[in-house]
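Inputs:
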Amino acid sequence: MIPSLSFYGPVIGLSVLSLALFALDALVRRPAQEMRSFGFWIGLVGLALTATLIPGVPSEPQLFGRGMLVWDSLSYVVTWIGLLAAASIFLLSAGYRGYDNLRLAAYHGLVVLCTVGIVFVAMAQDFLMALVAIELVSLPLVVLCAYVRKDPAAKQAGMKFFLISAFSSAMLIYGLSILYGILGSTSFQAVKDGAAVLEANRTLSITAFLLVLVSFGFKIALVPFHVWVSDVFDGAPTPIAAFLSVAPKVAGAAVAFRVFSLMLDPGSLGMLMVLAVLAAVTMTVGNLLGLQQTNVIRLLAYSSVAHMGYLLIGLVAGGGYGLTGFYFYAAAYLFMNAGAFVVVMSLTQAMGSRDLSAFDGLGKRSPLLAGLLTLFLMSLAGIPPLAGFVAKFYVLSAAYKAGWLWLAAIGVLNTLIAAAYYFKILKAMYFNAPVQEDSLVLDKPLRVLLLVASAATLVVGLAPQTLLGPLQRLAGSTSVLEKGAVMDCCKVESAPTPTPEEKDHAPHEQ
Amino acid sequence: MNVLSLIIFLPLAGALALLAIPRENVKALRLLALLSAIATFAASVWLWVQFNNVSSDFQFVEKYPWVEAFGIQYFLGVDGLSLPMVLLTTFLTVLAMIGSFHITDRVKEYFFLLLVLEMAMLGVFLALDLFLFYVFWEMTPIPIYFLVGMWGGPQKNFAAIKFFLVTLFGSLFMLAAILGLYFHTTPNTFDYTEILRQSGAFARMFQLVAFGCFFIGFAVKIPVFPFHTWLPLAHVEAPTAVSTILAGILLKIGAYGLLRFSFTLFPVAVQELAVTMAVLAVINIVYGAFCSLAQTDIKRMIAYSSINHMGYVLLGLSALNIVGFHGAVLQMVNHGIITGCLFLLVGVLYDRAHTRDINAFGGLANVAPVYTGMMMVACFASLGMPLLSGFVGEFLCFLGAFQDPRLRVMTGISLLGLLLTAAFFVVLIRRVFWGSLPEKWKNFRDMDAREMMATIPLVLAMIVLGIYPSFLLAPMNETLTAILGLAKRVIP
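Outputs:
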């Protein structure tokens, strides 16, 4: 039995870190360059320390915080992804020219604050909790999008992101207020226990869940709620675009997974079918839009839209299989996307252009960098033997096994469209003549990130068992034993007096 | 000793070693690439010597768990079907290396990609786990994409991406079928031998769908009409040595896969669809020949003749008898040798004249007797002249198909293709080598030592295989008989 206080470990660690960074920004008067490296190092060390606070995964999901939070493999994996994404964004930011002459201590604090939100989202076991957590993710992101105040595009990106998140939160509130009317509770458990009640109020329930889904749809940028993505990615600082493409989306998908796959009976209300259609449309439209792009950042934005479609396949497939696929896909995407962003960011800022033509002849100018970007793009396209291929293979086979044949087929065919636009970059790099001859030099933090990302992409592709084995065990503990947690939770919900579990927790909380 | 792994990964080791050599040192790069290819060839010859001809089982089997979560294994084995393909691959790659020595632009990348390509192709021929097979299969188009796109002709960009997307399109169908097989077995497995053991229980409908998906994947590579559109473009735009490998080896992986997996795992579908395949084969033969006849670009002509020749292979396979099978596999090897040689020879011509237009030449026999002789042997072998290797394979394909009463008419029609093939090769020889020599080719150099080194082994192989084909047939016999038995299984 893990003491309940330890489940707060990552949240407390991150909060302290972020407050420390804000305090640093407010109290210390030093030149911008120094503040930037203070923020970088304190942030990185803080994240590493917080990582040691992440509790292990219990054999069955553990409820805490009066049943509003849960610690299981989903929370565990998403917490890790949040931390790793934050760390990779620190490395990426260290090499971003757009931040030169800015005091970045508070910037790092904001990223950490956003990560706190991500951890909360991953742990939420209650709609209200989820709402607050999602706000905690979104608000720092609004500031981060507009962090380069003098850049009108960044301001616009921040504004767009703010309006979209406000709108989608409103949808979530509307949906959950209807759900509260039906179930008399905002807990996710109530969704599970109240299956009969939901079925009895079918139309109303479907309306409520659709509203919730639309809200999540905006957060995860599912088609047709994706229109903000390319503008925000293009306007925001590139490191923030990289962060946006992974961590908040995975967290949003995780809470969707919890609600629609683990809690809501998969067969009821036809929500799974809605999700399946959304996944199919998201992949296809995301990829088709990517095909049209010549702005590489926008291209990566649409690629992230398409990848969320694949992630959703894991959700639709459900069960231990789908959950493992979800984890694996998220992890693989984190690394290959980070790697691709390193090269794209360095090149676009060196060339001062985000057009595809900036990549012309990179294969001649910097063979190593071009080779690595090739690796990441092929992994994103799902070509063996790289991490992206195994990830796609896993979610598609999960869909196949769960009987979603048509969804798997669309997923397979989408690989083709995706390959077509990732290969446009390869074509520019290798087949076109270079405009400039000088080779591209990367800062040290970027090189570190590149090394880690490429190693992960290769190792996970060549020896998938290294990641797959542990993830499978994790997923098993959540999906198979979910029923056990339901029983515990019912007691929490129904009994006004403290349950044995709560009594257990009491001493630690003092 | 894991000789199969050694064969597969020797080229990769060579490729990685290339990375350590500075790019200015072109000589060392070439030498190292050639040495890795020769070492791989030597290892495959050793394999041939050690190979047991009287067994239809997989030999030199290597089996290790790879991804336990999926039951995926690193499972390799060689039998009488894969052995000739492995030999063809390693042999042609050595010659392609020699034929690439005139490349001066980005030499390091070029040989790196060529060696990675060799590794992927060898992996395709030796993998017996379907997942592993797919991984190698999907790795083959990538080096080719770069090789065509970086060192190709004027339309290289389009040729490269079209080739890649069309083959990926086919592969995805195959991936779907492989997933289907995985979930149709208990316990779920990608192990070919295990799937084969359970294949008796596959329902007719499942067999048809899975066979269809596999067929699309393989048909793109063979290529079977209507999936052939990438071929003329890619073959023509590719640099000489890459055309050699494309035509010589890559087209074979489709036919190999068909015989190895589709024919053995889905007997019901094979028997039902044999006639359909024969129809496609006839279209390939006749259509390919007509297209060839219409070309004035020599390289394009040979590219289309590949469509025609791979039609013979498909015809022999769809005969579903041992004669046809022998013919098909022999034709696969022969086509690799002959067309590989033809592309190298056309490369020789293009390097000197910078044109491949058939009408631009004439009377070259007067100034380049060695070149003329080589070209004539290769052309005659290709059109099926007896005592040269092309004849044996084609003859057996026709003989096999003719034995099946359902295919008689089609065999008759495809003889027309044979006639047309003869016609366009004779036209080619007449226009280029006979007649009066135009003024501008007065100083046409005959072949130099390097070019001869790349082509003479192939010409010798044509003659040897034409006179004494049975040394290649011997190792194949048991395996092909076993495959035939599996393909003709009657499932209650």
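Remarks. Chain A has 23 helices and two strands. Residues 480-510 of chain A have pLDDT under 50 and may be disordered.
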